[in-house]
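Risk register update: the risk of archive-format incompatibility is retired. Evidence:
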Amino acid sequence: MNIVFLGAPGAGKGTQASRVAKKMNVAHIATGDLFRQALEKNTEQAQKAKPFIQSGKLVPDEITIKMVLERISNNDCRNGVIFDGFPRNLKQAETLDKALQEQKKAIDWVVYIKVSEKVLLERLLGRWICRKCQAPYHAVYSPPKVAGKCDHCGGELYQRADDIEETVKKRLIVFETETTPLIRYYSKSKKLLDVAGEGSEDVIEKRIIDILKQASLQPGK
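Archived output:
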């Protein structure tokens, strides 16, 4: 089964994609991890992507798509894939569908994790990271024992530039702009499954597993 996970920054799609992939015994492909792995191996596509990654810009679609297609040819993708952070826009979605069609495969479902803007802002603006060991914290959900210090190594905690209010709001606007055509595209093909993304990680995971099971029992699936 091939599934796309969609969700705004802070919706928890990365966490849920990883959890659900393990439960379903399918590969989890996150574009951020994919870029890092390709850079470590110094592949041809990684060399093309490197200048964009280093400058903090989005990697062009043609490079991202080639890297994803190379990745899904690996043996661990035989049982299926959960795509996390890809496709990001309509062009990527159409190209992915075409490539899968050539392999006699298809995207089966698209899980759209929906979270209110209020909760997204609360989640993103409360995130802190250890400067030394990169351990994550949250001011509300998982605060450190001592304010500003990592529980593990005593390192200084800081907020990424991406998690400052002005930047967060811009990221949400960009997501909305890019995702609206994607939502229409997948809705038209009746593959879109809306999932409420507020609650504990365990509760949200169960919602996703349940809705995928129900969807797969539909006639013709």
